[in-house]
Structure formats: structure tokens, C-alpha cells
Amino acid sequence: MSEQSEKVLSSWKEIAVSLCCGVRTAQRYESQGLPIYRPEGAVANVVIAFESELREWSKNSRLDPICSEELPLQTEFRITYLKKQLAKIEKKVEQLDSRLKAIRQEYLSKTA
Prior knowledge:
Elements: E1 8-9, H1 12-19, H2 23-29, E2 49-50, H3 51-60, H4 73-111
Antiparallel strand pairs: 1-2
């Protein structure tokens, strides 16, 4: 990839999407050598990163890759996020179903 077509990421959110993780996780990766840059004279939370460097770091790190090369990164990140949300919803449905059964049994015992 030439320097001119290199994708520059300019926020933690963009970096997190590129890595298929949350913002806090991406920020924690900084202590593990994540290649980010903090422009001199900028506010402390301003960061930039090069997508090619993030991909290389991800391949060489001991972290399990979440994204596959076949799918666009944002799509894979959304799939992962939606799977987690679905699991939370399924757990809540189970809890509500259990509560409903208990209410039914209580009702039936009172009417019997």
C-alpha cells in the first residue's frame, strides 16, 4: 500500500472498529504495544494510527484475532456486537419465562 493510500485512523472509536473490539479494550492494548501515535502539542486523548500497522500488530500479538480477512472489519465488528446483544436478550427472555411460570403456578394454586 502506498503512503498516499494508507488509511489513517484518528480516534479511539475508529481504532477499536479496526481491531473489532471496544474502545476501552483498544485503549488497554496500548500498554501491550499497540502502534498508536499522539501528535505533539495535541490534547492528551488525541490519537492516530495506521490501519496497516494495526493489522500487523494484531497478527503478531498474542491476542486471538476476532475479525476475519474475508469480511469488512465494520461488518465483522457489528456481527460480534449483535451476537453479544442477542445472548443478553436470550438470557433476559429465559429469566422472564421463568418468572412467568412461577406467576402461573401461584395463580393456579390460588384458584384451585
